[in-house]
Amino acid sequence: MGKLDKFVEVGRVAFIANGKDSGKVCAIAEIIDQNRVLIDGPCSGVRRQVCDMKRLHLTRFCIDLPHSARTAVVRRKWTAAKLDEKWKETSWAKKLESRRLRTNMSDFDRFKLARAKQ
Amino acid sequence: MASAQDEGMDFHKAFLSIDTDHSGEITVDELQSYCRKMNYQETFVQKWLMLFDADQNGRITYDEYCNALGLPPKKDVIAKHKSQQSKGKKSGKTARAVKVAKRRKEQEETRVTVETVKPPVQEEVVQTAAVAPVAASKAAAAGQAPQPPPSQAPSRRSRIRNEQLSYSGVMLHSRARVFQRKALYRLAKKSAANKLARKLKGAPSTAAQQRPATVEKPIGGDKNGGTRQVASRRQPRSLPTEPTSKPRRLRPVKTFARQRRRLRASIQPGSVLILLAGRHRGKRVVFLKQLASGLLLVTGPFKVNGCPLRRVCQSFVIATRTRLELGDLRLPERLNDAYFRRTKKQSKQKASPAAQDPFTRPEAAYQLAQERREDQKSVDSQVMSALVKLGRPDKKLMLGYLSSLFSLKSGQRPHDMVF
């Protein structure tokens, strides 16, 4: 796994880092130009839209998509590749989840945690 | 040439023709409808009431009318007129008029009972009742007629509709106009004249007024006559030399007792609260209810963390998400603000001067009232039973949680934390 193995290509699964859909994964359906791509994440609740590359963090997953594939095709390929489970198993996703749980801990949860750590 | 007798009859005839429901009294409604019928000016109504209504109750009885005019009341005429009321049909009243008359009669009946019970209170109540309809009518959207409480305000007040002109904030009738048309000046105001009238009637006055004007007080010295008459109501120490006019408050300030109490949505019965100030700061307590003053009633429970049934201010509390299922919580009736109010320590003991010395005098020990013990027990038992319902492991954790103290640790940012 070298540094130059994640390419911006049609079918690349990307993580949206900020904006309305931040925290979700999507697939690149089309490349518009140097900076922008068309993304679509029907299984993760991301509407088909233009997205700037600066907002995306590429993952190591890639699905076999024809370019400009419509949403239904993306959905089919996504579920066939079982990307939801694969994504959840990555330590990236696990870290995100644990961070989310930690920030949402209530006062009682913190007490229980402290007790458990003793 | 009409004789004196006939001329006298005209006035009587006028009364009879205005009193369309044959009640023997002219009400404001009847005056208004007569005014409209004859195309008189609106001042007709007010002037008639001013001139003829001696006891200012909004109804001109036949006797009042004759009195004002100096005419001898014709009993047979009025009796005949009144008898037509039972027939009802002769006056040609509509079904609605009959209903209105009936309702008015019921209101009058209840009004009479209120009158006989407490004269001064009725005036205030009538005033507030009349204010309420005006306010309600102003607030109501087009087409809604506010219903004044039947025992106080007469029905005619509900007929004057004052609508807001399409969300502009501007009302159809100005405040002054509404005042005029509803004849609100008729309401008994607590004027000095009325106060005197009430006093003369023998209505119960305030405690201050019931005190005699002078009190006999003994004074020393053999040559001073032994007693003096002292005025029980003192004159003010100084009177202003220039008239001071206080700027009138455009919006009346509400006293604390009348202010609206708010409660954060995050605070529910059974919620665990973290106390941030006071003797029990840092403790996690269970919220029971909000008292009338707005303060929160909480309990430790006492056996768990030493916090008793206590009042706590909402601002000095963090509401956590944790909630106990208290279910049907039954709090003793006597738990209110007066129950928790601080009592003044016993002042000046009538002991020897030595005992009064603040340094040597023993401090009055706090005596825990028996009722406090009982109430604490009854409330805490309910809270504890809610804990037991959680099941063994959770109950243990919850008890541990409630007995522990809250503190901010290094790296914790309260604005980032979820409680």
UniProtKB/TrEMBL annotation, chain A:
The keyword Chaperone does not apply. Keywords: Ribonucleoprotein, Ribosomal protein. GO terms for molecular function: RNA binding; structural constituent of ribosome. Residues 48-118 form the Large ribosomal subunit protein eL14 domain. InterPro entries: Rib_uL2_dom2 (IPR014722), Ribosomal_eL14 (IPR039660), Ribosomal_eL14_dom (IPR002784), Translation_prot_SH3-like_sf (IPR008991). It comes from the Eukaryota. Pfam families: Ribosomal_L14e. One of its GO terms (biological process) is translation. GO terms for cellular component: cytosolic large ribosomal subunit. SUPFAM superfamilies: Translation proteins SH3-like domain (SSF50104). PANTHER family: 60S RIBOSOMAL PROTEIN L14 (PTHR11127), LARGE RIBOSOMAL SUBUNIT PROTEIN EL14 (PTHR11127:SF2). Belongs to the eukaryotic ribosomal protein eL14 family. This is Large ribosomal subunit protein eL14.
UniProtKB/TrEMBL annotation, chain B:
Residues 80-93 have a biased composition (Basic residues). Keywords: Calcium, Ribonucleoprotein, Ribosomal protein. This is Large ribosomal subunit protein eL6. One of its GO terms (biological process) is ribosomal large subunit assembly. Belongs to the eukaryotic ribosomal protein eL6 family. Component of the large ribosomal subunit. May bind IPO9 with low affinity. InterPro entries: 60S_ribosomal_eL6, EF-hand-dom_pair, EF_Hand_1_Ca_BS, EF_hand_dom, Rib_uL2_dom2, Ribosomal_eL6_KOW, Translation_prot_SH3-like_sf. It comes from the Eukaryota. Residues 79-114, 137-159, 196-250 are annotated as: Disordered. GO terms for molecular function: calcium ion binding; RNA binding; structural constituent of ribosome. Residues 6-41, 42-75 form the EF-hand domain. GO terms for cellular component: cytosolic large ribosomal subunit. It comes from Macrostomum lignano. Coiled coil: none annotated. The keyword Ribonucleoprotein applies.
